[in-house]
Amino acid sequence: MPEFESIWSDLQGVVFEQGYLDAGGVRTRYLRAGDPSKPVLVLLHGSGGHAEAYVRNLAAHAEHFWTWSIDMLGHGYTEKPGHPLEIPHYVAHLTAVLDAIGAGQASISGESLGGWVAARAAIDHPDRVQRLVLNTAGGSQADPEVMKRIITLSMAAVENPDWETVQARIKWLMADKSKGYDDIVASRQRIYRLPGFIDAMRDIMALQDPEIRPRNLLGPGDYGKITAPTLVVWTSDDPTADVEEGKRIASMIPGARFELMPGCGHWPQYEDPATFNRLHLEFLLGR
After folding, report:
1. Distance (Å, rounded) from C-alpha 126 to C-alpha 135?
2. Model-level pTM?
3. Among 4, 3, 115, which residue's Cα sits nearest to residue 49?
4. Residue 78 needs a FRET pair 20 to 30 A away by CA distance; which of 69, 100, 114, 132 works?
5. Close Cβ partners of 223 (under 8 Å, ≥ 6 residues apart)
6. Rounded CA separation 39/54 (Å)
7. 212: phi > 0 → left, psi -120 to 50 → alpha, else beta; which?
8. Contacts of 250 (CB under 8 A, 6+ apart)
């Protein structure tokens, strides 16, 4: 029998806190671990996601960082602003979170949409970003088929949040389709059943709109402005873009380091946490 994967099992023995903070007037949910005297690390999930994307990474990183995994603006249990969400909205929320926790500077690691936001923050606020990790990051291209697939799966999951539709959205992220990912599915199902979440997901899907997405994309001139030491993590089975796209992103960022994780899809931090934590910490600690 396969071992049951549980969010609670991932967090057992970890000294962590779940709570809410006021980030520029936005009630923002977080998972937090580590000593406040240590450098700050903020972890940003992907489109339609939530802080649990990093439950397998909190313990390892809390040894070295005051580690925050947040529900991004309009996501999870964080307040929904009620309008289409574009990258500047997410960046403003991120900087408000940093202000709220008293972090003049932090390392920012983002997956998918989170990577897009992290990169833009590093461009617009270079003084706030100490080190940058782009993990299967979005924002470098507009693939109509991928955009359509994200909209279809995401809207189906909120309009009819039964087990199968939410599980399909989760499995799309993963390389190993044989697993059920039951605990992650249950966690996301609870979020997608929140009152008003259909409208919230429509606002989240704005970046998949072919008229909205282009003005948010990052090009060579944008990536070239990043001054923070940067790690680009890509995977062999990412459903949003191939390995060459990951390498292309890294090539546009001065001095960026590129790491490929085999056997993973869009969530390498969850699918292979041992490898991800090792690579991630080696970079963040400057080793």
Report:
1. 19
2. 0.97
3. 115
4. 132
5. 119, 123, 140, 249, 252, 253
6. 18
7. alpha
8. 230, 232, 256, 257, 258
> In this predicted model, what pLDDT tens digit does every residue of 172-214 receive, in sequence order?
999 999 999 999 999 999 999 999 999 999 999 999 999 999 9
Indicate the Cα dihedral angle 255, 124, 26, 203, nearest 10°: -90
Categorise residue 105: left if φ over 0, alpha if ψ from -120 to 50, beta otherwise.
Answer: beta
Three-state secondary-structure class, residue 231: strand
Q: Which two tokens stand for residue 246?
A: 């990951």
Tokens 């995977």 appear where?
235
Domain ranges of the chain: 7-285
Please report which residue ranges of 45-196 form alpha helices under DSSP H: 58-62, 87-100, 113-124, 144-159, 163-173, 182-192
CA 212-91-47 angle, to 5 degrees, is 60
Pick the CATH number of 7-285 from 3.30.870.10, 1.20.1250.20, 3.40.120.10, 3.40.50.1820: 3.40.50.1820
Helix (H, G, I), strand (E, B) or coil at 89: helix
